[in-house]
Amino acid sequence: MPEVFNLGVPGPSGHENDTYVAEKVIYKVNNLLNSGSIVGLLQKIMMHNTIFPDTAYSFYGFAGFDGRTVQPIIVQPRVANAHPATQIMIDTYMAALGFEKAADEGRFTNGEYDVWDLLPRNVLTDNEGDIFVVDAEIKHIVVKP
């Protein structure tokens, strides 16, 4: 676990990830609190990569403490010179991707996926106005026949 500091400079951390910032990427050491398991995390990553390919995750490796914890490390492209997007920008971007806004702020659906936590802290914009979703909660909607 102490070797994670070799990944980059410690960055903002949240409920689920500790981040380490390198020149071109962000490493996220995931504690599995939101996903519940490595399989759940990998499924979430695949859904994120399908919806938001500009900020696609890759699996990097594992951290943890011997015999006690396993924490997957995922890596994502770093968006340089970015700042938080406004909620109006986020809403417009998601509409352009075919999602409808739900009643809760930052929540969207397209009939196949529910995506939430799309708030300015998790969505960036660069100087050209491009939008980058760097963190989102995603659930595949199971449609019963």
Radius of gyration: 16 Å
The order of strands across the largest sheet is 1-2-3-5-4
Residue runs with pLDDT of under 50 for 5 or more positions: none
Write down the secondary-structure element order. Answer: EEEHEEEHEEEEEE
Can you tell me the overall shape? Answer: globular
Which range does the strand content fall in?
Answer: 25-35%
Largest sheet: 5 strands, antiparallel
Overall mean pLDDT stands at 90
DSSP summary: helix tally: 2
State the end-to-end distance: 46 Å
Structural class: alpha+beta
Number of strands: 12
Helix content: 10-25%
Q: Could you please describe the fold and organization of this structure?
A:
There is one protein chain. This protein has 145 residues and is an alpha+beta fold. Helix content is 17%, strand content 32%. The chain contains 2 helices and 12 strands; from the N terminus they run βββαβββαββββββ. The chain has helices at residues 38-51, 87-96, and strands at residues 9-10, 17-21, 25-30, 58-63, 71-77, 83-84, 100-101, 108-109, 113-116, 123-125, 131-133, 137-140. Strands 1-2-3-5-4 form a 5-stranded antiparallel sheet, covered by helices on one side. Strands 7-8-9-12 form a 4-stranded antiparallel sheet, covered by helices on one side. A 3-stranded antiparallel sheet has the order 6-10-11, with helices on one face.
